[in-house]
Structures
1.
Amino acid sequence: MNTSKAEEYIDFNLRHAWHKISRMYNQKAAAHGMTMSIGFILLIVDKEGTPSTQLGPRMGMEPTSLSRTLRTMETKGLIYRKIDEDDKRKVLIFLTEQGVEIRREVKKVVKEFNERLLQSIPKSKLKVFFEVMEKIDDSVEEELTKASKFL
């Protein structure tokens, strides 16, 4: 019987690394009364406004969690919502001045971490990493497509 250790699975390693990164970002965010989710939303929202329906899929968040996070961000004065003038069914999310300011700080933290990674990993290995991640993304997309055909 072939038994494998969890550490030998690709998805285990992805989840483990992401969990640690998530803990690190949440720890940094908590020092400012925020969460990693709030930080990522601040990074995703663009100047022209971002439809709220686009945020969930891009963040990998369930609608209820996203709604709760957006409400918190609104209460903290980081975002505001506006109905799209062309399509009244669409709600756009915009950053307030305070949201833009905090976005700068979030961007700085993310850039610093990425710079440390880029300095410690040779370019040739990074190239392979991104190729592997693209292959994983393609494989997952293929699995999702297959699964949706059965629904």
2.
Amino acid sequence: MKRKFYLLLIPVLLSVYAAGCVRSANPDVERGSFFQFQDGFPEVRMSSIGLLSETDEALINVTTDIVLGSLIYSTHDDVRSADVTIEIRILEIEGDFSKNIRRDFSVESSFEGSYLSQDVFTNNEEIVVKPGVFEVQVSVLDRTSGRASTRRAEAEIPDPSDPQINVTTVRLLAKNSSPAESDFFPITTYTVSTALDSLKFLFQVTNNDMEDPLEINSRLIQFNADSTAARPMNFNNYSPSTLPYIGVDMRNPQEIDAITRRLDQPGSVLIEFKYAMFERGNYRFEVETVNESGEQLYKARDFAIMSENYPAVVSPRELAGPLIYLMDRRDHERMMQIEDPDSLKEAIDRFWLSNIGNMNQAKAVISLYYERVEQANKQFTTFKEGWKTDLGMVYILFGPPWYVDRFLNTFIWSYSYDRTDPRYNFTFERPNMRNEFFPFDNYLLQRNQGYFNVQYRQIQLWLTGGILTTRI
């Protein structure tokens, strides 16, 4: 099934979710990028890590991923390509050091690769700087459209001549299972695909005046998080004591692995840990030690293991999951129990065709539905898939809101010119303020039994094909 992706970003929402697309407010915890894009602009993900070379030269490693489907392509001599410029600017936060690098690329891609996948073009730079703390700005210009996207992060490089103990930011890398792709590559996002074979965590410890051996404690932990799809709009609201209300419990993690290493020699030491791919969930790899003053030094890398093609939905299981918003819950549970991919795909096709009937109309409805699912993943991903959130459910069923009102902990989405109409004005509230320890916007729909008829009518528009002419 061919899919078209329309980037239906709501400008008001962009300002809200952009804050979650850069490094957390806690500089000790790296989380990579959440998905961030704007209609017609290059979709960019980046990470920057400070480190010392084997000769103690200060470096900043900058990895930039550009989603191929977000670029504008032209064809010359039967070759499809997009012209891209990457500009990297390094600015010392407390100093006058700066450095600018520009790279021009012609990115070739097939039609399928450029429009129907989440494949990325990756540029990796190691930039020589000096020890210090820097802001790293990466701008990607699509020279065909003239539009650019900018991302920012920070990088810190310890001074090798400083006798103090330092620990760099933890870097996350991954490797594919294919023997032809045996090298580890940086992960720039918070989410990690289950299609990958293994993960590697890399960090550097510096100590130039060591009288006693230095102990480095590392720990891999998993957070208990809600992973369920959003409940129907007419159900009771979530109880404050439940995990869906809390979202992710970061106070009581489960320890997966713990290792202590002793460094007996002074200097800069690069330390790495490798793991086979984990089960789906939310994780943190953390490192801590104690400096010469007895103060704790702490660094961590948070990440979430998501589905194979995330944020796209491609496999039969990925396509079946979001149907929970159109099906009876018991029927959906029986569908998800089908293990054979071919049988599951047949069950999905039967569901759509038995309801809509017309093959061509069914294809159009299917395309629209999964476009919405993918957009929900890109706009509302938190500790769980965007389509599973309350915002994602409403977005999939009703589409982009006509109006958005935002208050301190509240969203109001309006699908009516009458802003007081209770049937088509939905309120979302955030039980937990996003902060350096809880980096997610967990907005919950304020449910009401009066929404039963509203949701039922919308589901019928999907199941009859009426959604193509009547969106609400």
3.
Amino acid sequence: MRIYDYIKITALLIFNFNFFLAQTYPPPAGQIGSTAIHKDSSVFINWVRDCKINRGYQDVSNTALGLVNAGDSSMVLGHAGLNGVASLGDGGNAICTFQFPIKNETGFDFAVFENSFDDSFLELAFVEVSSDGLNFVRFPSHSLTDTLQQTDTFGYTDATKINNLAGKYRGIYGTPFDLQELATNTLVNINAVTHVKIIDVIGSVNRLYAARDSHNNMINDPWPTPFPNGGFDLDAIGVIHQNLNLSLAENKLEQSIQLFPNPTNKGDNIYIISSETIKNITLFNFSGDKILTCSQNIFSTSELSSGIYFIKITTNTGCIAKKITIL
């Protein structure tokens, strides 16, 4: 290799490295260029109606401490900053639903609220959306945080190094998301988002536990947080754009199909009562794994474990997902 070529390649590598270091995202709330939205902003037209929480450990590297237990799902409902928060713990998640589907319009479509007490103590979470409660699509996230040294339990995180992760902003300021970013993904209808899933980021730089962004970078945030209120603390999700027209059609289909009994005892049959012709029925567990597929309007729960399931029912006019609880 000629000296000139060596110098040119070295210069290019240095430029790219410096560009990587210099790349930044919007700053904390209140600063010029921030995308943070205050909880009392008039852009919010609705909030979470229902929420299911799957707790994570206080410390995934020391499971003997048990699961987090601070707050409950009722605290995620309604307006941000009013009802307290629900802690998710290491890798825990919350699945939230709404009165009407969220839809894509110009700008941001919803925002997620955490309860950080300042602009630098940031507990982060992935955000996923679904149009049926079964197939979830994750927003592409990016973390440029330093991963050479672990951010300690009450350590500092630079908001300008974080993109598309909930918890980027302090309490009462929502981190917004734009559904247009998912427009090319066929697994979700960005004009009919019915579920939003918030998944705690395990901010460890230990490769055994580390969470990674969409570029496969480890995400470094305060860890461990070995407390009953550890991990991401979900306050609320504010809706900016909602689809009223689609909801009316879905409500009509929803009302035409009933499950009985629900909840049901393990071993009993579940009957699907429908005024429309059923083409296909698919049952999923809470994790989204397919359990069975059939076209009959009755199935047994004798082979199923107690817990929450989702059933996707397809008719000639559309499809809906309903929740089933087996006791």
